[in-house]
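Hi all, long-time lurker, first post. I run a small reading group and we've been trying to get comfortable going from sequence to structure in the token notation. Rather than ask abstract questions, I figured I'd post a concrete chain and ask someone more experienced to write out its structure so we can walk through it together at our next meeting. Sequence below, copied exactly:
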Amino acid sequence: MSDFLMNTYARLAVAFTHGEGCWLFDEQGKRYLDAISGLGVTGLGHAQSEVAKALCEQAGLLIHTSNLARIPWQEKLAEKLAKISGMDKSFICNSGTEAIECALKIVRLAGHERGIDKPGVIVMENSFHGRTMAALSATGSRKAQAGFEPLVSGFVRVPFNDLAAVEKVAALDKNIAAILVEPIQGEAGIQVPDEGYLKGLRDICDRNGWLLVLDEIQSGVCRTGKWYAYQHENILPDILTSAKALANGVPIGACMARGKTAELLTPGRHGTTFGGNPLACRAACTVLDIMESQNLCQRAGQLGERMLDGFKKKLAGKKSVVSIRGKGLMLGIELNQNAGPIKEAALEAGIIINVTRDNIIRLLPPLITDDSQADTIVNTLSDLILAKT
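-- Answer (accepted) --
Happy to help. Here is the structure in token form:
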């Protein structure tokens, strides 16, 4: 580990020099099958030729101006996002947590317009929304929050996948302005709610005049088999956040909104120096075009079912396995013991996986993963679990 970097990650004992599709290569030339896509980022795999070409061309033309002038690639991206999401307008930023901060500022503006002095937001236990102060305060992890108090006030926490708990808050707290929720909780270990949960939240928001804010930073951009996970339930949020896979590794985020909510931010109320620059926006436009032309949303849904079925068959009856769950290419395997040794063994076997909450294996394979690679992940990981737990 470098003496000059802050110790913010428990890093793997490996460094990668280059990638090709679903593969990463270390300094010794060993290759690894990337089953986490850089934590859900490189949906098109590594060194994608069309994205690389677009980046090189744009870098030779214009990387940055500022948002004081029109940025045509930013306008194109916003139009594409509106088309795939059903939202009206976007604020383009640099990351998921910035998109969440933007969303929370919009919520407060909306709450104040309704005459609420201190607008509150219902958030979920075990959620994760980012590490800046408002996003961290909304996050349902004391481990992530510890030591950073005082946190931002105004968040009311309820259990995930519990509509009755939300209804109870609605009856008691008249300062609520919005609900913020991940359609599928990622950091919590791929927690998939019951069918109808998002529709139920939409109904509660409509009855109370609240905004429904969906954090699709991890679950969006084809990951679950739709452009965005809420589309499985045929609803629309009022505000939507997106990032991670949006530009296949180039830092970018988007906060989208619709209707009157999309008009609340006006000049001087919010901004960004780097956000929406021509380089990042052209990369994102290229990524979305590729995903659409290759029908990768449908592919993610089909491949996810194949992998989920494979794990369930291979691990059937294994007492150490608590649950196997997922939607599309968001997959989680919960064990009744620490999964760290499985992660280390998988790395040795040439597969990169992630462990969250100590005992849950999280898999976010690239959307371009082929059947053979998917089967390799399922078979190798299953064999490791069978042997080591």
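A couple of things your group might point at:
The domain at 51-293 is CATH 3.40.640.10 (Aspartate Aminotransferase; domain 2).
The chain has two domains: 16-34+296-388, 51-293.
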